[in-house]
Glutathione-dependent formaldehyde dehydrogenase (Planosporangium flavigriseum), 388 residues
Amino acid sequence: VKALCWEGVGRVAVRTVPDPRIDNARDAIVKVTASSVCGSDLHLIDGYVPGMREGDILGHEFVGEVVEIGPAVRTLAVGDRVVVASTIGCGGCWFCDTDQWSLCDNTNPNAALSERLWGQAPAAVFGSSPLTGGFAGSHAEYVRVPFADYGVYRLPPNLPDDAAVYASDAAPTGWMAAEMCRIGEGDVVAVWGAGGVGQLAARAALVLGAERVIVIDRYSDRLDAARENLGVATIDYQRADVQEVLEDMTAGRGPDACIEAVGMEADNDGGLGLYDLATGRTGQSERPVAVREAILACRKGGTVAMVGVFAGLADRFPLGALMHKGLTLRSGQPHSQRYLPLVLDRMARGDIWTDYLTTHSMPLSDGPFGYELFKYKIDGCLRVVFHP
Ligand code: NAD
Ligand code: ZN
């Protein structure tokens, strides 16, 4: 089968790879009909996440059709049209039992490796570095879905693939980010990053009761999309002093909650925090500009929700501000199995919508071109969806 593979820093290519098979009685095989690009893929392509191997298949946000199930799978049938959670949960450990699926103890076969970097291992994620499992991703014609009873959900027939695909990851992440802000009446929430995740976080914040949401980015088409589709205020950080504008907009107090949905960007970090797995040393440090700005701009006693992905160590992280302003810092991969049914329900009720996010749709064979559009945000690109 064909798949879009990581070929080295800055390089992806479509390759022919072996057909995925049922390796475990709890696996399913899904024929992928739509698979979205995500900012997290850019971190892998840019080389900010250690451990990637040549030939690793990218992609973790997808919908498709179940074409084969292992003998122990109870909740699915061949022919089901489904959306699949980006994080893989076993359904039986303490973390899964307590609805913290992205922290599952049992699905990351490279737990020892990630313990060296992070102290403990998170759940596996499709199409990512061995640090988070190393499972083959969904930018492929077929994908093996382990623990298929716990991350696979049937889709309502009226929800098109290009809109449903965001229920895998971007919508759960945005929802969780907003929920982490513990939004109260009259709250103002600022969101750094107007990509798919930032847009969905902004909408979730409004649904959860924010009085005002302000979205920050440098791409005018993305800011326009946020204003037009969500009715939020926006700030272009290349034209204004973000902290000053936020102060002006909040009578000098600052936003009650700040969501960071940017992660590791070349011009955001200024350099790599690459962790060398062999030597245990970190090279140049990450400089998380958006995270720093969010912490500094947040009102005293407020909450900063960091859902942009970081991999290594961070320099110039304003620990002093965190402490002296009494801030709460929250973070994490989405517990997709917890939020996926919720976001599907919100989509059906018209509370959140994702149709405007897919600015580009293309066959998987155009994958390298799609990533070029997405990385440099060319031609108003907000999200690309591949149709293998
Ligand atoms: P994206 O690349 O489409 O969007 C990122 C946006 O951030 C861009 O529009 C960019 O211009 C903007 N940006 C860069 N520097 C900024 C700054 N200093 N201030 C404000 N905006 C800035 O990516 P996306 O798909 O929306 O994903 C965003 C982040 O969320 C990534 O780090 C991704 O890895 C992460 N993510 C996390 C999870 C999770 O599990 N927690 C899930 C999905 C995505
Ligand atoms: Zn588990």
Q: What stands out?
A: The chain has 14 helices and 17 strands. Residues 89-90, 92-93, 95-96, 104-106 surround zinc ion (ligand 2) (CB under 6 Å). Residues 2-169+334-387 form a domain with the Quinone Oxidoreductase; Chain A, domain 1 fold (CATH 3.90.180.10). Residues 263 and 310 are 6 Å apart (CA to CA).
